[in-house]
Amino acid sequence: MALILNRGDVEAVLSMRGAIDVLERSFRELAEGKATVPTRLGLTIAEANGVFLAMPAHLTASGALGMKLVTSYPDNPGKYHLPTIQATILYYDHQTGRPLALMEGAHITAVRTGAASGLATRYLARETSRVVGLIGSGVQAETQLEAVCCVRPVIKATVYSPTASRAASFAARMSARLDIEVRAVDEARQAVEGCDIVIAATSAKNPVVKGEWIDAGTHINGVGSHAPEKRELDSDAVRKAKVVVDSLAAALQEAGDLLLPLAEGVITKDHIYAELGELVAGSKPGRTGQQEVTFFKSVGLAVEDVAVAQLVYERARSLGIGRDLDL
User: Fold this and answer.
1) At the topology level of CATH, where does 2-109+303-325 sit?
2) How many angstroms separate the CA atoms of 108 and 318, rounded?
3) What are the tens digits of pLDDT across the range 16-35?
4) CATH number belonging to the domain at 124-300, selected among 3.50.50.60, 1.10.10.10, 3.30.420.40, 3.40.50.720
5) Which part of the chain is CATH 3.30.1780.10?
6) What is the pLDDT of residues 265-292, one digit of tens each?
7) Which residues are catalytic?
8) Minimal CA–CA distance to 305: which of 2, 28, 23, 17?
């Protein structure tokens, strides 16, 4: 019998704090060589401007095994009133290969991406960080802000979106949800200058964060761009930052935020300081100075999806949530 979990089921059992703690363990496993994460398999659906990805992973210490199937169709909201990201996660018994669960994956994707940034923020942002700036006002911006609020004493956030009404709606919604001051601003620069933490969560192809706007001591989470030709930070912003990635191999294939400055000769591969797992495992320190600018570049790893799927499955079983299906 496999457990079927819809979005409501997943939302009922998954918290951001729980996801951050699970990812801390899974990134440690990854750094210690106790996880297998093949490069994701991708197909471009050119006629529909879509991408289909298959992302398997196995964590040997915690026994998590599964795969996420995810599509990204940027035209969906405007054309079909459907989400850009749609996903399903298959979760298995790692000892027998028996399918244990099929669960809605878009919510897990949003939460685990936020949680990875929250984990990076825990190791890289100043402990006194109170002001957050966001570029982007979509679903991912929501989980990003929630995650950093879980690990730092945030009291205020500013948000910029090219669509002013979306920024205003985001500000009202997140202010009520997180009980902090959230204010929409008119320019991207206003959402970067003077902030302790900056979050870029957009679909932009060209930079929306410039190095000249970034104050000393700022921590930046970049999660929107995950293609070689796209970036959210300009080369100057990357050059002035200590760069940490979720996966070096994946970043050097997919992260335009790093690949484009590399191609320009602004940075070398040595500029990439560490993988997040190295900070978690203690093999490299995170922030080492109050004036240091740090940048976490996330492209997203299957180990995150599978680790969170294990948490969701175990909590759903313990609470009797979901329905069983005889496959």
Assistant:
1) ornithine cyclodeaminase, domain 1 (3.30.1780)
2) 19
3) 999 999 999 999 999 999 99
4) 3.40.50.720
5) 2-109+303-325
6) 999 999 999 999 999 999 999 999 999 9
7) 68
8) 23
